[in-house]
Specification:
Structural class of chain A: mainly alpha
Order of helices and strands of chain B: HHHHHHHHHHHHHHHHH
Order of helices and strands of chain A: HHHHHHHHEE
Largest interface: A-B, 27 and 39 residues
Radius of gyration of chain A: 25 Å
Oligomer: heterodimer
Number of helices of chain B: 17
Structural class of chain B: mainly alpha
Number of helices of chain A: 8
Number of strands of chain B: 0
Strand content of chain A: under 5%
Number of domains of chain B: 1
Shape of chain B: globular
Distance between the termini of chain A: 72 Å
CATH topology of chain B: Cytochrome C Oxidase, Chain A
CATH superfamily of chain B: Cytochrome c oxidase-like, subunit I domain
Largest sheet of chain A: 2 strands, antiparallel
Number of strands of chain A: 2
Number of domains of chain A: 3
Chain lengths: 263, 503
């Protein structure tokens, strides 16, 4: 009997393999190249093709592992946990609201548009889709874990929070660092100093104000942070579009040291 | 537990079939508006065949001409049918919900984004390419991606509805005992799943051809439409509107308090679905010998057989029980009858236009057949809203305004189709371009008059659509609660009540 995990990984294998072949054909692969892993012809964009084929291979291996170890097999789980499966409360399948259909659609659409627009957009869509695949899978798993929805939510958060928080933190910090660097590089030397001083002072004063008033509603603090985050991102995007200020390089065209021209 | 989600959260996270159904139908109306405007502009351009009037080149006309058809099928009629099925079918088969509610939600969102991308692609001089290849290649690629996304959405939603019929219906109801609408959705959905992937494959072929290297060659940007056009013409268009047969059967049966003969009706619906399968009719690929070509035409003309069966199924019980007609059901019955009338005319025009000696296969007659058939689908959608509207929106609805919208739309379709059918006999091509040579006919007063009549038809169609949208908005804002079962119908959807959404 094919286990749930096997079906999931096998489905992912088929999807990623198909995507790899499709990417191969649409990025300059020959007729047989993408189907023969490049043995008989070119595979097109080898980075995208390689990543997707690697994902397909990994999924295939995980499918075999899942099947070998009888994952999601209630009887096998009961043997290990020494639980009488007849006494476990029946899990209820949730039919309520879910954000994952919309987010998955956004991921798929971003990938599709990226096929036409730019590989970066495609990559972004792929990452969104993969993240949502994990989140949705874990949500579905937790919904079937027990008959208690609160317990299910705790189970899911216990598994995902240790991954979500550091990853989202890193992504958030990375985005802010990139945005701030674009702003400072777009401004003049003196302007960059002023921006850093003023923004730093605003952040400090806001934090001081909030710390002195612990009774401020959580929503207000979240709102202030959200506005600040959006302001930094939008400014960073505009700064990136305007480009960096001119630099006078010292020691030749490819010298490491350089002088900046204020203008 | 208290539901703390905001309005926006509820809108974007719902998996409830009634809400999704409303999303589908509202979006379909907007798509219908886009399609009608495109059709109106093409009709306006066609009045003077001697030169370009409102467009600059033939390629510009081509963009709107194809936009009209693509939008009519993929963004208007199909989502309208899917939306109706999403709300009504689970109730009719006694299921508490759709079998795959989250997949249904995903399908809607993917379809919606795909539809927006298609519209963007057309407005950005992309669409499905142009004969002179003056379109923007990136925009054509974008449109093709949009087409693929809409197909994914429609297939997903159809799968969910079909599985609900097959696996989700209450015990005791066999497939042959389900209501006619559910049966028509079962047949239509099955055939959609057999043909939409073929359209997707065509789309992938032309996309890969445009983006790939030279050896992968299926004709390039200039023939994209040739590869996709089979999905937007006879006989495939019958398949897109197939659920209208179920809608009409339900309404007419209840109006006459007379059950139709299920075996005859179900057979007719099944045969119509079978005859409507059009994935084989791909004009881009050489269809072979003259013998095969004739067989091709004969097969297409066979659509008339189930149509005759349908007429017998619909009319025979009514003649005996005409006194039993429930006057309260007049408005939905009128709309349903008009839609079947349009469909039957579409069938006749379709059968006529494949008769070889008449040489109508590429003439304006094609346009008449498409608008008649797909127009019948839209009108059936209005009849369905008139019939099931209170179930769909949970409020009392204004029947008279729906009737007025439907009548304007019906006359628009009728006038347009008559004019295009007749002008086809003068030799006017389906796509007229911006010159008499491209149009295939001279700019005589006879042709010009028919094209003016056709334009008036397009204008009425647009007015009908605008009236339908205004009526829908007014009904949605109505504060009068639904009255339960206003028709005294005995099908299960009037009894069942969907489970409350779990927060």
């Amino acid at each position: 009997m094919l286990t749930t995990g096997f079906k999931l990984w096998f489905g992912l294998l088929v999807a990623t393999f198909t995507a790899a072949v499709f990417v191969g054909y649409t990025t300059g692969g020959t007729e047989t190249g993408p189907l023969t892993l490049g043995w008989k012809g070119a595979v097109g964009n080898h980075i995208a093709y390689g990543i997707l084929m690697m994902a397909a291979t990994t999924s295939g291996l995980l499918a075999i592992l899942s099947q070998s170890f009888r994952d999601a097999d209630a009887e096998a789980a009961a043997e290990i946990l020494e639980v009488d499966i007849d006494k476990v409360p029946e899990a209820q399948i949730s039919t309520g609201s879910s954000p994952w259909p919309l987010f998955t659609a956004l991921g798929v659409v971003t990938m599709a548009v990226g096929l036409v627009a730019h590989p970066f957009v495609f990559g972004t869509g792929l990452i969104i889709s993969l993240v949502i695949a994990v989140e949705w899978t874990m949500t579905n798993w937790s919904e079937r874990a027990t008959g208690d929805s609160e317990k299910n939510r705790e189970l899911k958060e216990g598994l995902l929070r240790p991954i979500e928080i550091p990853v989202l933190g890193l992504v958030g910090i990375g985005v802010i660092v990139v945005a701030v660097s674009r702003i400072l590089l777009a401004a003049s030397v003196l302007g960059a100093v002023w921006i850093a001083t003023v923004v730093g002072t605003i952040i400090f004063l806001t934090a001081y104000f909030i710390s002195k008033r612990p009774s401020i509603p959580r929503g207000v603090v979240q709102g202030i942070l959200a506005v600040g985050f959006i302001a930094v991102i939008v400014s960073g995007i505009f700064a990136a579009i305007n480009g960096e200020r001119d630099f006078h390089h010292v020691g030749g065209e490819h010298g490491d040291s350089h002088m900046e021209e204020d203008h | 537990m208290k539901n703390e989600s905001t309005v926006v959260e509820r809108i974007v996270t719902t998996t409830e079939s009634g809400t999704l159904s409303r999303y589908w139908m509202v979006s379909a109306l907007v798509g219908l508006l886009f399609s009608s405007v495109a059709g109106l502009l093409v009709s306006l351009e066609r009045i003077d065949l001697s030169s370009a009037s409102i467009f600059s080149t033939a390629d510009d006309v081509f963009q709107f001409w194809t936009a009209h058809r693509v939008a009519l099928v993929l963004i208007a009629v199909l989502p309208l049918m899917v939306g109706l099925a999403t709300a009504i079918v689970p109730r009719q088969v006694g299921a508490s919900r759709l079998v795959f509610p989250k997949m249904s939600a995903f399908s809607f969102w993917v379809w919606l984004f795909g539809a927006l991308i298609i519209i963007t692609g057309f407005l950005a001089n992309g669409g499905v390419g142009t004969p002179e290849a003056t379109s923007e290649t990136q925009s054509v690629a974008l449109t093709l991606v949009g087409v693929l996304l809409t197909i994914i959405g429609l297939c997903g939603a159809s799968t969910s509805v079909l599985t609900t019929i097959v696996a989700g219906r209450v015990s005791g109801i066999s497939l042959l005992n389900i209501p006619a609408f559910s049966w028509s959705v079962l047949v239509a959905g099955t055939m959609w799943l057999a043909t939409l992937p073929v359209l997707a494959a065509n789309t992938v072929l032309v996309y890969v051809d445009m983006r790939g290297r030279a050896p992968v060659n299926f004709g390039g940007e200039a023939v994209v439409w040739e590869q996709l056009s089979w999905a937007f013409t006879h006989p495939q268009v019958y398949l897109w509107v197939l659920p209208l047969l179920g809608i009409v059967a339900e309404i007419v049966s209840a109006a006459f308090k007379n059950k139709m003969s299920n075996p005859l009706l179900f057979t007719a619906i099944g045969l119509t679905g079978f005859a409507g399968f059009g994935a084989y009719a791909q004009t881009y690929f050489d269809i072979g010998t003259p013998v095969f070509e004739e067989s091709f035409s004969i097969i297409q003309a066979f659509i008339a057989i189930p149509a005759v069966l349908l007429v017998v199924a619909f009319i025979s019980p009514k003649i005996k029980d005409v006194k039993g007609f429930d006057k309260q059901t007049t408005i939905p019955t009128v709309l349903a009858t008009l839609s079947i009338v349009l469909l039957l005319h579409g069938v006749v025009v379709g059968a006529v236009h494949v008769i070889g000696p008449l040489e109508l296969a590429t003439k304006s007659t094609v346009s008449a057949q498409i608008v008649l058939t797909l127009g019948a689908g839209v009108l059936a959608g209005m009849a369905a809203f008139s019939w099931w509207g209170e179930l769909l929106i949970g409020k009392s609805i204004s029947q008279r305004k729906i009737l007025i919208s439907g009548l304007i739309f019906h006359f628009g379709v009728g006038i347009f189709a008559v004019a295009d059918f007749l002008v086809g006999f003068t030799g006017q091509n389906d796509f007229t371009g911006v010159s008499e040579f491209a149009a295939g006919t001279d700019n005589s007063s006879w042709v010009e008059t028919l094209n003016i009549i056709s334009f008036i038809g397009s204008l009425l169609i647009l007015l009908g659509v605008i009236a339908a949208i205004a009526t829908s908005v007014q009904n949605a804002l109505s504060k009068t609660p639904a009255s339960g079962n206003p028709w005294g119908a005995d099908t299960l959807e009037w009894e069942s009540k969907e489970k409350e959404e779990v927060a």
